[in-house]
Request: fold
Amino acid sequence: MNRHVISILVENHSGVLSRVSGLFSRRGYNIDSLSVGVTEDPRYSRITVAAVGDGGIISQIHKQVEKLIDVLEVTELAPKDSVCRELALIKVAASAAARSEIISIVEIFRANVIDVSPTALTVEMTGHQTKIEAFTQLLAPYGVKEIVRTGLTGIQRGANTLKQEEQEEKDQEEKN
Reply:
């Protein structure tokens, strides 16, 4: 079973996310990661779902999601043809003695310290899931207090876009 990333372009209406995620639960598919946000056009949102399954399961998910109202396009983001990232906020215990060591690790991973208190540092880390996990493991001996992750988001490489050509033509006609 491989991990697959599915990118879904939807109308930006209330209830759309509920219908998409509900489809997964009704069919017994587990969602490893889910992120959603408005696109460059406020009429549309993009949902990025990471799920584990074989080719048949992913194909079935793809077909079922395409049938949903307000879904404009569904595509799988192949690793070689896309860029995927995740954001993590990590709060780590930071005594005065350990603070410089933690900051050195932060710099090596190109992360950012975004909050400082007398007993903790909060670090912002963006990258591939494995990079975030490796970073977290290095911080573990200092005492990771809390981790918040956004979930995976991704985009196709190059000039390829998710928006359907038909939808672009329709949008152009509305402008004229």
Notes: The two ends are 48 Å apart (CA to CA). The chain has a mean pLDDT of 90. The longest helix spans residues 16-27.
